Amino acid sequence: MFSKKKKKPLISPPSNFEHRVHTGFDKREGKFVGLPLQWASLVGNNQILKSTNRPLPLVDPSEITPTEILDLKTIVRGDHRSSSVPALSRPVSANPLTQPVHNGVVLPKTSNVARSNSLRSMSPPKIRRDLRNQPNIPPSVPEESPPVPPAPQQYPTLRREQSNYALNKPVSDSPVEWSHSHEATVRPVTEINDNQLAAMTYQNIQNANGPYQHNHPQPQMVQGLQHGLNGNNNVGDTHPNTVRHQQPGPLVTPHVPITESKHELRLTHEQFRAALRLVVSEGDPRETLTGFIKIGRGSTGVVCAATDTRTRRRVAVKMMNLTNQHRRELLFNEVVIMRDYPHPNIVETHASYLVGDELWVVMEYMAGASLTQIVTHARMDPEQIATVCKQCLKALAFLHSQGVIHRDIKTDSILMTEDGRVKLSDFGFCAQVSQELPKRKSLVGTPYWMSPEVVLRLPYGPEVDIWSLGIMLIEMVDGEPPFFNEPPLQAMRRIRDMPPPRPRGAARCPADLLSFLECALVRDPAQRHSAARLLHHPFLRRAGPPALLVPLMPRPE
Ligand SMILES: Nc1ncnc2c1ncn2[C@@H]1O[C@H](COP(=O)(O)OP(=O)(O)OP(=O)(O)O)[C@@H](O)[C@H]1O
């Protein structure tokens, strides 16, 4: 009868915006300039990529899985003998109550903050909601960002409606309670943001009286990426959201006596350093370590081999500068994950320290090789591939049973001892899920190894590691992952739109290897086999002892 006249929404102009990222295209050089490192890696013109010829992992800084307030729990600092301030502890128990969830993966009932993967997410989780009224930012609740629209051709893509991953939990910042004793009462959370760290540190860190700064998250970069995935490669260049508009997010930390309670907080360097000090060991490793030799460089810092003069043991030391991290909160992962999840197939952490402005993680020295070195220099036979897969799957089955998702499985993350034992490393990007928070949403991973659900921005779980393991298997057959000759963004489009990839060398692969691969590279995560299930696949009967891998090790020069 009557046509409803739509009222034109009144949109105010942005206020208080800060222009902190300025990107452009240098026609002479033929490359983008001014991109943050992680985004540069995505469009394929960053220096680290060039120097190591390996793609960098990508962490979308604006997409943080919201945190949840869980039950109150008392945690005690692991080593509190000599400490004058309370600190986060190692986990009280390694195996919380568990119940099966879908697809055979068993998740812990709650995440454990002390395991503090957890501390990784200090960026404000609410920004998209806060920015909803701004131009160019579509409403996105409960999802944090729009899915990639289906491409014109179509291999049936996953859609949100197809997955049962409804996010039924409200977004909430999680206050952390803190008491002035060796026992700290905290609400375990799955991720902690700057507000929560501020809450902890405000009351506990002496001399940390500098002003809190507002955090400036970067939601527009997601739009830029989305734009790129939709066919425009000029990420950050032509998309309207390249200018950042500052809009402070809400703060829900009743225990922090700060007047500007509506503002997101960002820890000062000293506060962050003090927070990190709470989880590292005391002492100066330079007093006991000697003979440093640089053996590698990653996106977070350098790795040196050294000798522990007390034990005469060879160790590897990962040194990460606090001041030049893309997301400094990820450093907490480096400290706690390998330490808190000991397993024969996970690189062992001995200790970690703050040395000036650097975080040093001292770990077992893996003198053999990385799997990348092997796949790029040798051809592996099916028995050797099965041996590697089996050892990796043991680590993954263990981690997944604890609710830990690695999120960056690739040959670069697999290190070997000289006698052929295979261990998982590089836990900088991992995340924890639990029954309360069974799915993650952040865009994290290295493009070529990303699962369809991650590319599609669907909530995801531990199954993403199984997809990446499948891609890693293709690396073992072909020497590189699928689409490796294409820019990362194009590779992500192909992952989004195409059937699961097969190795180029499929013709020389036995049927059981291909069948194993088909169980791992399933587009629908609910149908993908879990690590525990894959361990029973007939292909793994080919697996042999670690010695089978020794002939693959590069010969010392
Ligand atoms: N425990 C270790 N023993 C021997 N070599 C190691 C050890 N840990 C790391 N490395 C080597 O040091 C180099 C850098 O490692 P690092 O973990 O910093 O970087 P990465 O693998 O590129 O990861 P990311 O960039 O995600 O931090 C790699 O070549 C790796 O093989």
From TrEMBL:
Cofactor(s) the protein needs: Mg(2+)
PROSITE patterns noted in UniProt: CRIB, PROTEIN_KINASE_ATP, PROTEIN_KINASE_DOM
GO terms, molecular function: ATP binding; metal ion binding; protein serine/threonine kinase activity
All residue ranges annotated as the Protein kinase domain in the record: 289-540
Superkingdom, taxonomy of origin: Eukaryota
Polar residues bias: start-end ranges: 109-121
Binding-site residues for ATP, renumbered to this chain: 318
Record's compositionally biased regions (Pro residues): 136-153
Protein name from the UniProt record: non-specific serine/threonine protein kinase
Organism whose genome encodes this protein: Vanessa tameamea (Kamehameha butterfly)
Gene label: LOC113399058
